[in-house]
Design goal:
The protein is an alpha+beta fold and about 300 residues long. Helix content is about 20%, strand content about 35%. This is Glyoxalase-like domain-containing protein.
Length: about 300
């Protein structure tokens, strides 16, 4: 991977309550997605299933295996469960985080931190740490994670800036595009159209500057008027985005525009409000809930 390539959307994370991986699998099938088996993560706290998209990105439908009460108070397992950045103390069910494609041998944290120092945005990423998952077929996957630095008392900030996942083992083990049926969806989904992140109006300039340090490009459009909230957008890549031509995904950062969005911010803090998918003509249209997160479908332009 090129050192400057820090804008490839890898996956979006959707959380449901402990022990509900099989339930959420059916919920997403009912929405027109093909859901395939994932596995258990190293550390034994979480498990997932996957929705592989034709553009090479995917949805990670994740849940904790057990509630916190399953682990003895004071135990190492209970501490790891309570302090996990996706635990109930920090995140409610729904779209909770998103990842860009990292590298198994290039330090993404170094690249971003150097950019942030140069432009003064204040963005900072932790050094890479190892992670992994055991697939249902027993294959052991390995990767490195690069996460934004967030104060311990502000873990709800995770999900505003992306984390990075860089494969040590082949990416196709983690994202099985073969057989092609894995990414064939009854709804006609072709890929991600946009990821929309909401934040308080007073935070937009700061977060926009930090995302510019992360992505390496300024936003492609900015709008602001007394009658409408500010909005920033960056064009991203996906691992196979060439198949959709110019219809690449965008990361959109904006302030709440209506009462539903204001309530979302008040209850959950900043983060992903909506995920929009490109669909082929004759595919699903409109909007729905997951039931914990908002989805929209948009027919891809000719």
């Amino acid at each position: 991977m090129s050192e400057s390539s820090t804008k490839t959307l890898d996956h979006i994370v959707h959380l449901t309550p402990p022990g509900t991986v099989h339930l959420v699998s059916q919920q997403f099938r009912d929405l027109g997605f093909n859901v395939i088996l994932g596995g258990r993560h190293s550390g034994g706290l979480t498990e997932n299933v996957l929705v592989i998209l034709p553009d090479g990105a995917y949805l990670e439908l994740i849940s904790f295996i057990h509630p916190p009460s399953h682990y003895p108070p004071g135990s190492d397992e209970r501490h790891r469960r309570d302090t996990n950045p996706w635990s109930e103390a920090f995140k409610r069910p729904g779209w909770i985080d998103y990842a860009f494609l990292g590298s198994g041998d290039v330090s993404i944290s170094r690249i971003i931190n150097e950019r942030a120092r140069a432009d003064g945005s204040g963005a900072r990423y932790h050094s890479e740490i190892g992670g992994g998952r055991v697939r249902e077929d027993g294959k052991v996957l390995e990767w490195v994670i690069t996460s934004p630095s967030v104060p311990d008392d502000e873990q709800e900030g995770r999900g505003t800036l992306p984390f990075f996942c860089g494969d040590v083992t082949p990416r196709e083990w983690r994202v099985p595009l073969d057989p092609p049926s894995n990414s064939d969806h009854p709804s006609g989904v072709l890929g991600v159209a946009h990821v929309r992140v909401l934040a308080a109006p007073e935070s937009l300039d700061r977060i926009s500057a930090q995302l510019t340090s992360v992505i390496g490009d300024p936003p492609s459009n900015v709008s602001s008027s007394p009658c409408s909230p500010s909005e920033y957008a960056w064009q991203l890549k996906t691992p196979l985005s060439g198949g959709l031509g110019a219809n690449r995904p965008h990361l959109i950062l904006g302030a709440p525009a209506n009462e539903e969005e204001r309530s979302y911010i008040a209850e959950r803090g900043p983060g992903i409000f909506e995920l929009c998918f490109w669909v082929k003509r004759g595919g699903k249209e409109g909007a729905a809930m997951t039931p914990y997160g908002r989805i929209t479908w948009q027919v891809i332009p000719l």
